[in-house]
Amino acid sequence: MSRAETLNRPASTHPLPPPPMGLLAELTHRCALRCPYCSNPLELDRRDRELPTAVWKRLLDEAAALGILHVYFSGGEPMLRPDIAELVAHARDVGLYTNMITSGVGFQPAALDAVAEAGLDHIQLSIQAMDAETCDRVGGYAGAWQRKHMVAADIARLGLRLTVNAVIHRENAHQTKDFVQLAEDWGAARIEIAHVQYYGWGIVNRARLMPTRQQVERAMADVEEARARTAGRLVIDCVLPDYYARYPKACMGGWGARLMNISPAGVALPCHAAQTIPGLAFDTVQERSLSDIWYHGAAFNAFRGTDWMQEPCRSCARKDLDFGGCRCQAMALAGDASATDPACSLSPLHKQIVALAEAEAASHRSDFIYRGFQGAPKPQAERQMVP
Ligand code: SF4
Ligand code: FES
Question: Assuming Cys at both sites, which of 87, 166, 207, 333 could form a disulfide with 360, CB separation 3.0 to 4.6 Å?
């Protein structure tokens, strides 16, 4: 079989998977913030390519019929869509649990009241740092710090269930404890301490974001201490920077296993970065139903199960736990999406990855390449790992 045939093998070679748990509805790529680690693609969908309200409503109907439980309204900044309250109300009407993933910036306070009134179940608010200057600089938006605090107060006033999202990197890893305190102060039920994942804009800025191993160890110790202190009051989820980890993360809970990601223009993706894998054929929601794409779409079937794995994953006892790590990271770092994720200590490339991370962490670069519709220079660093 050729490489393209392998990636686009028909669904009949797989048993049907269970339905997805969640639909990540990327309503727009527009966003007031310009975070240098954004997971959106380097080539963003412009406003005139965004799906109209009627199509999103049809997708929410299809999602509920397929057995999906959660919808995550995301972006970009989903609150920039003028139809956001209408979509939240529709999702509720068809029985979906509604989540909003917001930066808190760029929309009028009344929009938040409207989504609360529409029945929004849960909101996730990001914060870029624990001091105003770094927060505004990382987000590329003057006044973001102040604005986020105002939105947090509105969320409390509206009684919305809150998760705080703190993306961790070299410039804020020392603030881990303070992020947890902020989540408590804001009345959050949960905080995500999410170390940057190096794809999308993150890989372009890797040398500017990579923490040192010592920073990571300190941050992890802070998380453990905070967990003991806040047990029963606050859930603290933590995503490690896997270049320093022993084993990789189970990216997306397994390829085509738990989530469907719909881009603003209607491309159905198994993960944020799937379009960085050459040879995959992606379906659009304009052409096929969610159910048809989930069960029979070539891209969703490309890395389901374990048949596609190479050694050392193929004979590894952890293959059903981490699914060989992240396919997009394997593509970026090993040049082969079906290789063992080089973040795994069992990968033959792992030592090179760790050396690369340590060198980049010591680089002291802080000249962020900000996310934007202008695109980004082609990442050079990732190519260092292609044999
Ligand atoms: Fe996971 Fe593959 Fe590493 Fe085993 S070899 S731990 S399955 S990535
Ligand atoms: Fe695509 Fe991990 S981001 S599989």
Answer: 207
